[in-house]
Amino acid sequence: MKFNSSKKPFTVGAELEVQLVDRQTYALSNSSELIFKNLPERFKGIIQPEVLTSMVEIVSPVCDTAEEVVEHFIQSLRQIDAIGEKYGFRACALGTHSFARKEETSITVKERYLRLLQELQILLRQFLIYGLHVHVGFPDSASAIRGYNMAINYLPIFLALSTSSPFFYGEYTGLHSYRTKIFEQLPRAGIPEYFDRFSQFEELFYRLKEGGFIESIKDIWWDVRLHPDLGTVELRVCDANPDMDRIELIISLFQGLSLLAQEEEAYRFYRQILKQNKWNATRYSVYGRFIDRSGYINIKEKIYSIIKDLEKRGIWEELKAVDRIKRLKNVLRRKPISEKMVIVYKKTQDIRIVQTLGFIR
Length: 361
Fold this sequence. Notes:
Elements: E1 12-22, H1 32-38, E2 47-49, E3 55-59, H2 66-87, E4 89-92, H3 111-120, H4 122-125, E5 131-137, H5 141-153, H6 155-162, E6 167-168, E7 171-172, H7 178-183, E8 189-190, H8 198-210, E9 221-222, E10 224-227, E11 232-239, H9 244-260, H10 271-284, E12 289-292, E13 295-298, H11 299-312, H12 315-318, H13 322-328, H14 337-348, H15 351-355
Parallel strand pairs: 8-9
Antiparallel strand pairs: 1-3, 1-4, 1-5, 2-3, 5-11, 6-7, 10-11, 12-13
Helix pairs in contact: 2-9, 5-9, 6-10
């Protein structure tokens, strides 16, 4: 398996899965075909179909900075809403739809999705979940393995920053990210294992492929995965989110930690510690506790400490992100989207109003 080295290491790209909802009822709207029929040429390839006809995916090009990625998202979301204004739908970025049911959705007629439906059955039919995926490019497979191992340790950090799915099927789940628990039902999802060498990943990949369980890397849905054909490590643990500053911070942190991994080898936690840390973010978002090598720390405080450590090491300066990080730190003073949703629901008892918090303003 060839690792296609990134032409410009530590560049970034991202994908945002977006719900299409009715402008009046906020129910899912099976309108993706209308988007592709009316899409201007410059957005083709950036706005792409997804597994359900009530969603699309925005795919940024390779960018130098998180700021550039977010600008592509904003322009694409505006374009979707411009089309939707004519046809009665709009874009919404939350980890789950708050009240939709599987009977109201349709699978996009595409060979891969139909094959997945045959394998996954009800799991795919109730897959009303939406994520944010972030790619960082690496110069070679060895540096990518280092970045991948480092990312495993910080999955709860990224998840906590993004939580936006406390409701599902019209019920308050009590979790900040119910999307996470739905995704973990899949056979090749969740927290992956550390690798010492790229050859270990290759061995695992070909074992699954030769058995007919996967066709390509796209059939592996780990919370973070190696993407050899793109020359990247892909972070996949995050909920979709309507807060563009929050997305920019997530991308910047992933880019910074990828550089840190080239200086400092990732400590390997017990798997149960990794699972507990992820659960703490799933259940409590940034208010959960993080089990660290030296003890226990609030997740929000851990994020502050990472930002400070990357600053001391000169990594923000290397990424030309010093001023941007000063601005983005303000995100941590805001309530997570998931918490805002719960507050609105407790005040109004109206699940439909909750859904509007996913609109990008």
